[in-house]
């Protein structure tokens, strides 16, 4: 061992046992460090990343199950359309016309339009008390014939009053003889006088449901409280 060491080492360390042991430890440590450094720095094989196909859609998440706090909504039954198309009105024309019955007319039609749709009035019918220029409303009844209407709700002849009809005493049939007043509007008049204790003036007729300014103008000279 001594002969194999370099000369400068032999001279420097004096070849003492302790010096030889220390030198051996340093050499071993240097060899281990060199081996570790070489192992860490060695080249490694790297795998290429997998290609992701463009446009691939991610799977849609499954719908969450319904809970008691959020019940599933089921489609309800279809909503039926209105019985009367928009812009149309239903009118009942009775009395002395060629084709009495329930007619469907455009909104804004007048009494003359209803008479024409009913085939016209019968010969000899007196239309003096009938305002043919009046605008009709939906659900109205037009009774043709006589001095102020001609027929009652049941279709039979009605005795014509000698003077204005009393709003506080007239029956539904008597009110029905007034121009533009059908069974529905006659019942509204009776309901109003029942709720308010009667009519105190003809002007209160304006407050009845279904009576506007034009209809009031047709009735104000034909009625009294």
Question: Which assembly state applies to the chains in this document?
Answer: single chain
How many E-type strands?
A: 5
CATH architecture of the largest domain: Orthogonal Bundle
- Specify the biggest β-sheet: 3 strands, mixed
Order of helices and strands: HHEEHEEHHHE
- Work out the radius of gyration: 54 Å
What's the CATH topology name of the largest domain?
Answer: DNA polymerase, domain 1
User: Mind telling me the CATH superfamily name of the largest domain?
Assistant: Photosystem II 12 kDa extrinsic protein
Low-confidence stretches: 68-82, 146-162
Structural class by secondary-structure content: alpha/beta
Give the amount of beta strand, in percent: 5-15%
Mean pLDDT: 74
Terminal CA distance: 148 Å
Total DSSP helices: 6
> Strands of the largest sheet, in order across it?
2-1-3
Number of domains: 2
Shape call? rod-shaped
CATH class of the largest domain: Mainly Alpha
Percent helix range: 25-40%
């Amino acid at each position: 061992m001594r002969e194999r060491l370099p000369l400068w080492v032999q001279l420097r360390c004096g070849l003492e046992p302790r010096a030889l042991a220390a030198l051996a430890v340093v050499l071993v440590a240097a060899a281990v460090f060199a081996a570790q450094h070489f192992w860490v720095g060695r080249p490694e094989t790297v795998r290429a990343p997998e290609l992701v196909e463009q446009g691939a859609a991610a799977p849609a998440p499954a719908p969450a199950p319904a809970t008691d706090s959020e019940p599933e909504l089921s489609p309800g039954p279809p909503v039926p359309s209105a019985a009367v198309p928009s812009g149309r009105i239903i009118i009942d024309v009775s009395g002395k016309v060629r084709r009495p019955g329930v007619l469907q007319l455009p909104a804004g039609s007048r009494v003359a339009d209803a008479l024409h749709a009913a085939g016209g009035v019968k010969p000899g019918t007196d239309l003096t008390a009938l305002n043919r220029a009046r605008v009709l409303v939906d659900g109205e009844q037009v009774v043709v014939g006589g001095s102020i209407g001609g027929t009652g709700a049941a279709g039979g002849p009605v005795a014509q009053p000698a003077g204005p009809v009393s709003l506080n005493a007239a029956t539904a049939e008597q009110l029905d003889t007034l121009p533009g007043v059908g069974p529905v509007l006659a019942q509204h008049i009776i309901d109003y006088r029942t709720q308010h204790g009667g009519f105190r003036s003809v002007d209160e007729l304006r407050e009845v449901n279904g009576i506007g300014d034009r209809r009031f103008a047709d009735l104000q000279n034909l009625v009294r409280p």
